[in-house]
Amino acid sequence: MKVIISGGGTGGHIFPAIAIADALKDKDPSTEILFVGAEGKMEMERVPKAGYPIAGLPIRGLQRRLTWQNALVPFRILKSLLKASGLLKTFRPDVAIGVGGYASGPLLYTAARKKIPCLIQEQNSYAGITNRLLAKKVKTICVAYPGMQAYFPEGKLVQTGNPVRADLTDIDAKRIEGYAHFNLDPNRKTLLAFGGSLGAKTINQSVQALIGKHDAPEFQIIWQTGKGSWNQWEDKVSELDTRGIHIMPFIDRMDLAYAVADVVICRAGALTISELCLVARPAILVPSPYVAEDHQTKNARSIEQSGGCLVVTDQEAESKLLPLAIELLHNENKQKELKVAIRKLAKPNAAKEIVDEIWKLYKANQ
């Protein structure tokens, strides 16, 4: 079977795509896979690191502010459609998969017109615009949340959960490796703080405020700033390391970061929540208020109502986030309570279930 996987822009799209690819290879190592992303976006770097080939389209989205670049968008779409057609003609996939993001639009639109069976995977409780536009043209829509018939044709829906990377299973066995990888002290509590692949200003400001108050915090910190905030810290890495603050623009070994984390501070994106459920780590979620339909708040409150996390709003974060994190680091009973509750929400077989749906499309078209 030959499969083309398209989408990206953020880790929330890229890592589920890689998880699907890995599960396809696990089921049948002879499966041929080609990724298609947007030129200049992070998938062009992350996918090859995962061991898969990728081709780029010149697609871009509309800028929210008035800019001359918006005038180029129709030309970029046309150029992307033509390049997508060429890739499909050359690679000749049996199935096309879209995971959301700009690049999946031209690729899956063109694939559907060529009668190639198509599947899309929607990570969020609020469907992205690319997937909504593609919904009528694809055969199967794999979703993570109930109630998605509000956005998609009900007869095409399959609730699978979100696929997460296979390296996040059984992470407790990686704890010693994690301490060595991040040069951490096994006898100190560890706080993991990140805002997704692009960073989060609120979380960064909160951690910055904490380290500004303490020469050496009583606990150690793994802090992913995101590339946008990295420049101001780049020349201070050695100094911060000596204080137990391990800072980086992006965490390549997220499995090891979760393995050593006693408490996690993060946004409430769909993929992040799926990972937290699988690794069962006590978490304080800070939903981003800058997303469509405020869906991160809906994600976070759903987990909170199940007893699986604590929630601090973006507006409250400056005053409440770090005191709450420090309190939780010292409260092992509350940590255990959160772990037990969030583990019950895990869907560890999501990638395999999506692969089963892909194989159904493949066999039906033979």
Short description:
With 366 residues, the chain is α/β, with parallel strands linked by helices. The protein has helices at 11-27, 43-49, 73-91, 104-113, 129-134, 175-181, 201-213, 237-241, 254-260, 270-279, 295-305, 317-329, 332-343, 350-364, and strands at 2-6, 32-38, 54-57, 95-98, 118-122, 140-143, 157-159, 190-194, 220-224, 245-248, 263-266, 283-285, 310-311. It folds into 2 domains: 2-163 and 349-364, Glycogen Phosphorylase B (Rossmann fold, 3-Layer(aba) Sandwich), CATH 3.40.50.2000; 170-343, 3-Layer(aba) Sandwich (Rossmann fold), CATH 3.40.50.
Structural features, described:
- With 366 residues, the chain is an alpha/beta fold.
- The N and C termini lie close together (11 Å).
- It is 42% helix and 15% strand.
- It contains 14 helices and 13 strands.
- It folds into two domains: 2-163 and 349-364, 3-Layer(aba) Sandwich (Rossmann fold); 170-343, Glycogen Phosphorylase B (Rossmann fold, 3-Layer(aba) Sandwich).
- The strands form two sheets. A seven-stranded parallel beta sheet has the order 3-2-1-4-5-6-7, sandwiched between helices. A six-stranded parallel beta sheet has the order 10-9-8-11-12-13, with helices on both faces.
- Helix 3 packs across helix 4 (104-113).
- The radius of gyration is 21 Å and the shape is globular.
